[in-house]
Structure prediction request, 69 residues.
Amino acid sequence: MLLVEKIGCLVIVKASAMYYSIIESAKANGLEPFAYLSALFTQLPSCKTVEEHELLMPWNIKLEAGLNK
Prediction:
C-alpha cells in the first residue's frame, strides 16, 4: 500500500470516529441524531464566538418542538 493510500485511510477512519462520536453524544443527550446534525450544520456556519459554538453542544442546543426523541 502506498503512503498516500495509508494516509487517506487514516483520514477516513478519523472522520468516521468523529461523526460516530457526534451521533452518540446526541443520543446520550436525548436528541434524535438526524435532527441534531441538521441543526448543527445549519447553525454552525454563522457562529462567531466560543459562546455561540458552546450553544450547539448536544447538552445545550434547543431544537424545534418535535425534533427531540
Notes: Residues 36 and 42 are 10 Å apart (CA to CA). The two ends are 44 Å apart (CA to CA). The chain has a mean pLDDT of 88.
